Amino acid sequence: MPRTAVAALALTLLAAACGGDGASSTPSTSPSTTTTTSSTTTTSSSTTTTTTMPDTGPLAGLVGTPVEDPFLGSGFHLLEYAEEGGTRLVSTAPLGTATSDRLVVDVADPMPVVTGVGADQLLVDAWLGSPDEVPATEALVLFTEGAEGWTSYAVVSTGRVLDYLRTTTDYQARVSVDDPVADMTVTEFDWAGRAEFVADVAVAAEAGADPVFEATVECRVDTPYDCTLLSDDGVLRPGDEGEAVEALQRDLAEIGYYEGGVDGRYDDDTTEAVRIFQRDHRLTIDGKAGPNTLGLIADVVSGDTRIAMASADGVGPVEIGARAGSALTDLRTLLGEETSSTGWYEEACTSRRWNQVAWGGFTVVFVERDGVEVFDGWRVTSLADVPGRLYFVGGIAPGWTWDDLVDLGARFTAVRGGVWSYIELGYDEGRFVEPPANPPADDAVVRAFGTGSGALVGCWPPPETE
């Protein structure tokens, strides 16, 4: 239904509640209300008759009849028009001796889509203060006419909705100030013995600033409000629960990043699994699963990703220990044709046979063990020259420096010209572009590292020989 039609319908209901047949519902003892007078002078005599037209404004039923204070609990108060010809009403006196605030009531603007509101009820905007301005404490109030006057049955308060939003991870991730400015528009209001409503909320850090958080909520007016966040920015965060979190846990477990229970709770274990996935895949590391993280997880699960992840376990789906022939075929599928190969040769010290196959600055090592040729490790000889689709567990990437490795948890040893290692990931014999100091400078650029046979130091032709 168009907004104008809704507003028209709501005003019709309001008028009906106030005596839509033209008869005033205001008791004869009430204070004077806004009226229109007309004078008629007859020709047969000098008598002048003055007729007072009834007040048919949308809130006329509240004038002169006690109205309950929905904010301070100060009891019932009489209201009068704030200005002639207007719709805004204000209490005839302050709400108590300790405050100068008055109760102000006006037609709800915009009027939400209303269902279940009876002819003896009025849904209005209300606030404390002055009728000249609408403060942040504005609320949508449902009044019901009774023996004592108009009783406040339900209060839709921006502050109480904000109290709920502060408990959500979506809000916590975006709003950092303690006293933000919130603007709320109630779009739907339903009365079925208790109030339920839907509202759009925008929160800014300060008055006049752009919103930093926007949401749609559905609430039941209880103490506190029982609300549900209808809007979703597509981000799963610590503290979230439900089927989406359960699916995330299941996917992370399938690709080896999560070992906890699949229980739908975004707990510390889930957060850490997301952080490690983000680290390895060169995403922003924040522990939250947004569209980019969720999309890449789905691609990795389905195998529909261009990334070939190298680790101490292998390269992509090609595991260390696999037969050399099939492993080389699969590696060529992942990385393309190699740029060089030593072919099989016998190493002088142990008489073992080796084969080293290189894709630019990335070398895969094969060895013969007990008569079986297997994929036995890999080595980065030049991090600046590895295939573009090749990623490394830990997030190590071209351009990394010693400072990045320190953040990762690597260690430095001043042996063999200075090497770095990260044993937890199976990386050793790490080198720098320039011979490092002890300890290395923060900006010392990483050049090489390896795992398995790719990190061996022996008399066989070393893979970093150039």
Write structural notes for this entry.
The protein is an alpha+beta fold and about 475 residues long. It has eight helices and 28 strands. The strands form six sheets. Strands 19, 20, 21, 22, 23, 25, 26, 27 and 28 form a nine-stranded antiparallel beta sheet that branches. The radius of gyration is 37 Å and the shape is elongated.
Layout of secondary structure:
Layout: H1 3-17, E1 37-41, E2 48-52, E3 67-68, E4 76-77, E5 79-81, E6 89-91, E7 102-107, E8 113-115, E9 121-129, E10 139-145, E11 150-157, H2 158-165, H3 169-174, E12 181-191, E13 195-204, E14 211-220, E15 226-229, H4 243-254, H5 268-280, H6 291-302, E16 308-311, E17 314-315, E18 318-319, H7 324-335, E19 340-341, E20 345-346, E21 353-359, E22 362-369, E23 372-380, E24 390-392, H8 402-408, E25 411-413, E26 419-422, E27 427-432, E28 446-452
Parallel strand pairs: 8-12, 16-24
Antiparallel strand pairs: 1-2, 3-4, 5-6, 6-7, 7-9, 9-10, 10-11, 12-13, 13-14, 14-15, 16-17, 17-18, 19-21, 20-21, 21-22, 22-23, 23-28, 25-26, 26-27, 27-28
Give structural attributes:
six-stranded antiparallel sheet, disordered C terminus, single chain, alpha+beta, 466 residues, disordered N terminus, nine-stranded antiparallel sheet
